[in-house]
Amino acid sequence: MSMEQENERVRKVCDLLYSASKSIRILSHVSWSARVREQFFASDAKELPIVSYPSYDPGPPVQIVAEARKYIRTSVVDAWLTRQADILEKSARMLAACGSEDFYRYAGELYGRPADVLPDESSTSLALAKQFDQAMSSFAALDLGAPSPACHLASHVAEVMQTASVEMFGDDAPEVQIVDELSANALAGPRRIRIRRAACFSDKDLRQLVHHEAYVHVATSLNGLAQKDLRILAAGHPGTTKTQEGLAVFAEFITGSIDIDRMRRLSDRILAIQMSIDGADFLQVYRFFLERVGTREQAYENARRVFRGGVLTGGAPFTKDIVYLDGLIRVHNFLRVIVSTGKAACLRLLFCGKLDIEDVPVLHELTERGLCRPPKFLPPWASDLRFLLCYLSYSSFLNSVNLTEIKAHYRDILEGIPQSQS
Q1: Looking at 170-248, which runs of residues are DSSP E strands?
Q2: Dist. CA 31–CA 43, nearest whole Å
Q3: pLDDT tens per residue, range 66-75
Q4: Looking at the chain, which terminus has fewer C-beta neighbours within 10 angstroms, N or C?
Q5: Residue 242 buriedness (CB in 10 A; 0-12 / 13-18 / 19+)
Q6: Quick check: helix, strand or coil at residue 349?
Q7: Spatial CB neighbours of 161, under 8 Å, sequence gap ≥ 6
Q8: Which helix (H) or strand (E) holds 176?
Q9: pTM for the whole thing?
């Protein structure tokens, strides 16, 4: 088979997989209506919500995936294509299993679970969440200053997002819309950014949304749509979620847009997912969040994220929300390694579409073959290589420092100082 014939085969498989992905809309399928919230509070938050999901037939996308598999061979590129096929098939079957324990089984396989071990073979996202929770508890006596007030309405946020998007993407900028119902405060895609009408936003929230939703999610979506030979790179699916959300949260860090409240929210989601895995029902998780956030509306929204699609009596949650910290750890470590190994050119590959870090070697090969196009849009922090490479080089060096000896040295110096002082 000639190289052009081989490339055409890859194009065909990618086209088929992209077609299969179109009917797999996970977040919209597992969303809860406003009526569920109204009934929950009408019961004084003492009864489990009553939730139903539309039926979903996995047959059509599974059949398209089966057709794609007929053209898959045994090369490294084909191993990548097989991973995409497996993920899409599992995603379709997960949607068909909404409201059952099988939904959780598929979600765990696709997104992972809090106690899953990361590539360092020791760390877990659950451990990070617990460590941050303990750290925040030890800071309880410190005067950290008041958080920025949540004073910006959706209308103002929409204006800021529209301006930032036009500056970044020009004629390709998505439309910003204000909607009544949304699974999060904001969601971004290549054609539109949606803001939940009832949400309120702080100054920090505004910066987070611009760097997270617009400069990462919209950028990778538009870059993926430009991949005419590898159309699967335009499909956001569970196999890409860790890297996409990891990049987005890393963007919050590198731009100074994240704060304690945001990090606590991400950590609490993981703790709550583990609570549900261990048997906590919706009411118990709702009360956990109520103690954390103080408002019943936000506690409900946080608990809803954990149980959408799963079993409200406990034991089978939706595990997607572990990807923010799990993905952050993976992305940050990957970036440090590509700098320490002199392969910083791989950085731009992360933005050529919706992909997973594990896909980078294959995408490099496909770039050499002329199938994968370089990204048109890069976040400002990824474009400023002078700063980014400096930061990552320093971060990589810190990783080589013997922290045990360092802690012992400074522990002796700080021995006489109380644990927390204002």
Answers
A1: 175-179, 186-188, 192-196
A2: 21
A3: 999 999 999 9
A4: C
A5: buried
A6: helix
A7: 176, 186, 193, 195, 209, 210, 213, 214
A8: strand 175-179
A9: 0.92
